[in-house]
Specification:
The chain contains 6 helices and no strands. The protein is mainly α and 133 residues long.
């Protein structure tokens, strides 16, 4: 008997988003760029669908996180899921930056210029000031 506390629709959407993400990465690895007709409607449709799989996946993950927060009777900072979510988010940021950092060039004293782009810093600063103004 299935668990009644799960929202099957959210599970189905997450499964669809994961499958779309997998096929997008798999197909882009198999496509030969030299022989690709970028004006073909099939390619354009596939590229369009590939563009919304990551935002859909992250949106659904946020919905599930909110659902789990609201389901717990403990609210605010007493809810252990908040600490777990913040820890997981910090870990993802750290792993993302570590994977982006080029360790061999760092050992020679060079930092990859795409590690922190000036545009990224300006955008973050502009967003920070927009929030506080």
């Amino acid at each position: 008997m299935p668990n009644q506390s799960r929202i099957v629709f959210l599970d189905a959407l997450r499964a669809f988003a994961i499958l779309m993400m997998l096929q997008g990465h798999w197909m882009s690895g198999l496509l030969n760029v030299n022989q690709l007709d970028t004006t073909h409607w099939g390619y354009r449709f596939w590229l369009y669908c590939r563009g919304f799989t990551a935002p859909a996946f992250f949106t659904l993950t946020g919905w599930v996180f909110c659902f789990l927060l609201l389901k717990n009777p403990l609210q605010g900072t007493q809810n252990p899921r908040i600490k777990k979510g913040l820890k997981r988010g910090a870990e993802l940021l750290i792993w993302g930056y570590l994977l982006r950092l080029n360790l061999p060039s760092l050992l020679y004293g060079n930092i990859n210029p795409s590690f922190i782009l000036p545009l990224t810093v300006l955008t973050m600063r502009r967003g920070f000031f927009t929030i506080w103004m």
